Amino acid sequence: MYPRDEFGFRFVVLARRWRRFVDDRLAKSGLSDATWTPLVHLDGVEDGITQTELAARIGLDTSSLVRLLDILCARGLVERRVDSNDRRARRLHLTPAGKAEVTRIRRLLLAAEAELLSDSSDDEIADLLRVLDRIAQRIETLRPGASK
């Protein structure tokens, strides 16, 4: 069997196992995938993003995201602000409590990832990241409607 013949399957299986491992580690600290993922995606977005943009980034439909955002807003981690360019639209922002939670999440993520990558050198990881970046770029060029 050639490496290309098994790459996709192994990549998908590994990604699922990686995600499950990380989710289990974060769950031990009271965080679920549903709550930590949107917070991490909102981090560093100074002007905020729309619910539609966030849904696309995390792979959720907007109706599921609305319920989740209601929970995160009720917990004081996220706030919806009026878009200065379109008063009908709302942009999502982390609150100071949300930013503190992201700091905690990132610390937990780094610890989990360090466990998983402990047998790999920095050079090996850098090589893998370059390949993943090329695949991501290729996906974008093959996407329907992408300029070629």
UniProtKB/TrEMBL annotation:
- Pfam families cross-referenced by the UniProt entry: MarR_2
Q: Does the keyword Repeat apply?
A: no
The record, for PROSITE patterns, names: HTH_MARR_2
Q: Mention one GO molecular function.
A: DNA-binding transcription factor activity
Cross-referenced Gene3D superfamilies: Winged helix-like DNA-binding domain superfamily/Winged helix DNA-binding domain (1.10.10.10)
**Record's superkingdom?**
Bacteria
Q: HTH marR-type domain spans which residues?
A: 4-137
> Which keywords, in A-to-Z order, does the entry hold?
DNA-binding, Transcription, Transcription regulation
For the biological process aspect of GO, one term held by this record is: response to stress
- InterPro entries in the record: HTH_MarR-typ, MarR/SlyA-like, WH-like_DNA-bd_sf, WH_DNA-bd_sf
This chain's protein is named MarR family transcriptional regulator
Q: Lineage of the native species? A: Bacteria, Pseudomonadati, Pseudomonadota, Alphaproteobacteria, Hyphomicrobiales
